[in-house]
Specification:
hydrolase, seven-stranded mixed beta sheet, alpha/beta, Rossmann fold, 22% strand, single chain, metal-binding, 273 residues, 2 domains, Cof-type HAD-IIB family hydrolase
């Protein structure tokens, strides 16, 4: 039977306001009390996700920055993989980002979210954790100790950035989308799925006993790794096309993960509205 539950956050476990609702909190707590182990797998920064875990009230493993960091429930780092410093210094330059200045650029260090300008709209994603950014001249950053680069902008601009990075770095980096307007870059070999395998090995649990939930392109490896993957009904159409065999469940804005977990584990829905 299932022993591990791995889930993405935005577009999956979190609601339309990028928060956790009481129904979801009650569900995960009841399942943890039954002995299920949760794994949160997201592109978000560790400090941000630690705050969301606190709101959920569970002792989950945290896979963050799309797999570049893995923390145990006691916050011990069990895996870390950085971008090469020279790569970081290059990917924040106008020749890569675009001279037009339309794209917001961020770097994720161990203890900070560094951003190239004020972007208050992005803080709406971090209401539960209170995580915030530091405005920094990224073109002068040393490039050391960076887990992830993030570009936020129009899909057309992001496609051009992705093409430039692919031409210059090829297989030396891993690039993916967490949302249509969020392009992310990590070191080669980083992915949620590989990070999940590291967690499962630590738990001595086979992937066949793992349930996973996701909604976007950065969840492909996660869903391919877990023995029992599920895709949100609101998933990116490109993910649906890529993994047509993965069952689709409810929407994130209707607590779809929580409702499906209650069906899988035969919990009642007394808190459902």
């Amino acid at each position: 039977m299932y022993q591990v539950i791995a889930t993405d956050l935005d577009g999956t476990l979190l609601n339309a306001d990028h928060q956790v609702d009481p129904f979801t909190v009650d569900t995960v707590n009841r399942l943890e009390a039954k002995g299920l182990q949760f794994v949160i797998a997201t592109g978000r920064h560790y400090a941000d996700v630690a705050g969301i875990r606190e709101v959920l009230g569970i002792r989950s493993y945290l896979i963050t920055s799309n797999g570049a960091r893995v923390h145990a429930p006691d916050d011990t780092v069990i895996h870390a993989r950085n971008l090469e410093a020279a790569t970081v210094r290059r990917i924040v330059q106008p020749e890569i980002v675009g001279e037009h200045g339309r794209v917001i650029v961020s770097l994720f260090a161990d203890d900070a979210w560094l951003i190239d300008r004020e972007a208050p709209k992005l803080l709406a994603f971090h209401q539960d954790s209170g995580f915030t950014y530091q405005v920094t001249d990224l073109t002068r950053h040393s490039g050391e100790d960076i887990a992830k680069g993030l570009y936020v902008g129009e899909p057309e601009d992001l496609a051009e950035i992705a093409a430039r990075i692919e031409r210059e770095f090829g297989d030396a980096v891993y690039i993916t989308y967490s949302l249509p307007d969020c392009l992310e870059i990590m070191a080669a070999g980083v992915s949620k799925g590989r990070a999940l395998l590291a967690v499962l090995a630590r738990l001595t649990v086979d992937a066949s006993r793992c349930v996973a939930f996701g909604d976007n392109l950065n969840d492909i490896d996660l869903l391919e790794t877990a023995g029992h993957p599920f895709m949100m009904n609101n998933a990116n159409p490109k993910l649906i096309a890529r993994l047509p065999h993965v069952p689709r469940i409810g929407n994130n804005f209707e607590a779809g993960v929580a409702h499906h977990l209650r069906k899988l584990f035969e919990l009642d829905d007394e808190l459902a509205s």
